[in-house]
């Protein structure tokens, strides 16, 4: 198999590192320290306000919702912690040229968070997989294929059930990485006949996927993005990944799956965007995919979602990482 130069993964990884360093610099300017306390960000990183100002997915900056003011998050307008009475207009929080009175429409916040990480632990964890696995996948499958899968999975992950995030800022490339993980599973299945001990490899991979999704059930981890990225990774992988053809019947099946995946990918993108912008129906059970209701550790998320529907001034909590 021809080996490709992994230009995309090199660029994305270096860019994400540069962005993270810039986050720390901005936090130092805003709060006189590159890192906030563990009570604000347990991932060892900047404040939620700095993450929002740099392009985190933050629903109030993307579409108009029930309020036009919030308590200023740390790092914005001199606010140092969550115990504040400072009130910010949405343009002061969202930035990016938004003016007072403007309706929020920062749709690009479904793209920019892919390149932002909420802390040192977060970026080390994500980039360890990205460098170890993503670079090899790009060498095997090619830059264009991996770039499309990576970006499509990341964007879809951020749109998927975004309404359930309330005013929780979310950042990270895990949706993209779950898309790559889905492609690894797909490649294993498509190359089943050529692999020594395929059942062993399948069980090992399914365990890794299940364990990773299980971690996503912890508070302040955006498991919706993981699930969405994995779904889109399967669909785009069926369309883009090269596959070995074993027979004419195998060729027909793979062509049918490819055509179905194209329509499903487009249809799902249309559906999730329509759900986000136009639907008022709230999924009653979806929160179980994002946080296990054990004890009261999901209470902050549940309270946050409820709060956004009944008040006009509210406070963003710690950032989601994914």
From TrEMBL:
Catalytic activity: Cleaves type-1 transmembrane domains using a catalytic dyad composed of serine and histidine that are contributed by different transmembrane domains
Assigned keywords, A-Z: Hydrolase, Membrane, Protease, Serine protease, Transmembrane, Transmembrane helix
Annotated Gene3D superfamilies: Rhomboid-like
Single GO BP term: proteolysis
UniProt protein name: Rhomboid-type serine protease
Organism: Neocallimastix californiae
Domain Peptidase S54 rhomboid: 105-242
Membrane topology: Multi-pass membrane protein
Molecular function (Gene Ontology), one example: serine-type endopeptidase activity
Bilayer-crossing regions: 7-25, 107-129, 141-160, 166-189, 201-221, 227-245, 257-277
Function: Serine protease involved in intramembrane proteolysis.
Record flagged with keyword Protease: yes
Keyword Transmembrane helix listed: yes
Major location (coarse): membrane
Listed GO CC annotations: membrane
Entry-linked InterPro entries: Peptidase_S54_rhomboid-like, Peptidase_S54_rhomboid_dom, Rhomboid-like_sf
């Amino acid at each position: 198999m021809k080996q490709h130069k992994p230009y995309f993964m090199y660029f994305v990884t270096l860019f994400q590192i540069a962005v993270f360093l810039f986050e720390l610099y901005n936090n130092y300017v805003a709060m006189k320290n590159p890192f906030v306390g563990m009570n604000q960000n347990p991932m060892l990183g900047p404040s939620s306000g700095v993450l929002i100002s740099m392009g985190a997915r933050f629903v109030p900056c993307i579409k108009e919702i029930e309020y036009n003011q919030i308590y200023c998050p740390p790092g914005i307008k001199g606010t140092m912690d969550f115990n504040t009475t400072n009130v910010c207009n949405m343009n002061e929080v969202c930035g990016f040229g938004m003016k007072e009175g403007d309706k929020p429409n920062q749709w690009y916040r479904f793209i920019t968070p892919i390149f932002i990480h909420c802390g040192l632990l977060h970026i080390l964890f994500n980039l360890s997989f990205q460098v170890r696995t993503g670079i090899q996948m790009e060498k095997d499958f090619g830059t264009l294929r991996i770039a499309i899968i990576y970006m499509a999975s990341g964007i879809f992950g951020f749109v998927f059930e975004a309404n359930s995030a309330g005013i929780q800022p979310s950042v990270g490339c895990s949706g993209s990485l779950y898309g790559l993980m889905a492609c690894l599973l797909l490649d294993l299945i498509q190359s089943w006949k050529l692999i020594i001990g395929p059942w062993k490899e399948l069980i090992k991979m399914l365990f890794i996927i299940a364990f990773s999704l299980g971690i996503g059930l912890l508070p302040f981890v955006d498991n919706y993005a993981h699930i969405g990225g994995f779904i889109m990774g399967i669909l785009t992988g069926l369309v883009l990944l090269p596959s070995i053809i074993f027979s004419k019947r195998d060729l027909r099946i793979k062509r049918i799956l490819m055509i179905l995946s194209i329509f499903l990918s487009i249809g799902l993108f249309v559906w999730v965007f329509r759900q986000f912008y136009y639907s008022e129906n709230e999924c009653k059970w979806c929160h179980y995919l994002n946080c296990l209701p054990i004890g009261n550790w999901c209470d902050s998320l549940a309270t946050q979602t409820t709060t956004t529907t009944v008040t006009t001034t509210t406070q963003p909590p710690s950032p989601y990482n994914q």
